Amino acid sequence: MKERLQSIKEEALQQIDEVKDSKALQDLRVKYLGKKGQITEVLKGMGKLSKEERPVIGQLANDIRDAITEALDTKQATLEEAALEQQLKEETIDVTLPGKPAQVGGSHLLMGVIRDIEDLFTSMGYEVAEGPEVETDYYNFEALNLPKGHPARDMQDSFYITEELLMRTHTSPVQARTMNQHEGRGPVKIICPGKVYRRDTDDATHSHQFTQIEGLYVDENIRMSDLKGTLNALAKYLFGEDRDIRLRPSYFPFTEPSVEMDISCKMCGGEGCSVCKQTGWIEMLGAGLVHPNVLEMAGFDSERYSGFAFGMGPERIAMLKHGIEDIRHFYTNDVRFLKQFHRV
Ligand code: 2NL
């Protein structure tokens, strides 16, 4: 029995030494130490031994099992280390290779124009006001002196949701709502940027969805000269100190009198070119003094209060500033277009 155990030990150590992978090593562990392993088989025959021999053989069997266990463990550690070494070698990263640049997004050109205009007006004490894009007929039309049947309602073909609800056609309803909240007390000094919707067929100069910024200043003694000074500051801020403005009479249902503002053409210095269509002036926005009906409907005493309002299209501003010739560029979102105007 002694010899049998010794030869098991020698054979096991030999095989463990020769093993090349952990799967084979695991098989050897089962072969020698498992429930049906060779050592166990030998120990089963212990019953036939004499009383004196039993502890000696038992001790030997234990020692041999310990020796085999240790050999197995040592080998396993060696194999694992080699595997790790191999993996590290294969997965070495060349940190000197150039990286793949991450595509970083930026804010949209229109958001840049809107933020710039917000910055100017907040610096002059205005607050930014926002409101719903799905609007009631009342705030979108009625409260702005556009009663049912008014021809200007046809001028702005709208997306109706129900008889009473529609996608707002301008940001003016935000101003009407804000005036209402003031309960007849001035000043109201706000700027309202946002998306608006019209039932137009998209082409180079029309989009069924576009943006607008409107401004409103209601207080005692607000006059045309306040409007003109404000618009002059806006034009110079957006297009440069060397620009002049002029106001032409116009018509809007919610203002009286109404004006349109032109900005002097820089391309030709007033000589006349294709940008200004030979006039030396470029149309930029519409404005006027708030119609007394609009003030009264919003709860303001039109004998005591007056105000000015103006509205402009950020798309138009951006097109003039950057020579963009098709409004659809703002909404087709071709990155080659967008990237040219990325700001942080
Ligand atoms: C344009 C012209 C304009 C207004 C908008 C306004 C709002 C209230 C009262 C009176 Cl609550 N007026 N807004 C006034 C004049 C012109 O927009 O051509 N926008 C692109």
Automatic annotation (TrEMBL):
GO terms for molecular function: phenylalanine-tRNA ligase activity. This is Phenylalanine--tRNA ligase alpha subunit. Keywords: Aminoacyl-tRNA synthetase, ATP-binding, Cytoplasm, Ligase, Magnesium, Metal-binding, Nucleotide-binding, Protein biosynthesis. Belongs to the class-II aminoacyl-tRNA synthetase family. Phe-tRNA synthetase alpha subunit type 1 subfamily. The keyword Magnesium applies. Its cofactor is Mg(2+). Binds 2 magnesium ions per tetramer. It comes from the Bacteria. Residues 113-320 form the Aminoacyl-transfer RNA synthetases class-II family profile domain. It is an enzyme of class 6 (ligase). It comes from Alkalibacillus flavidus.
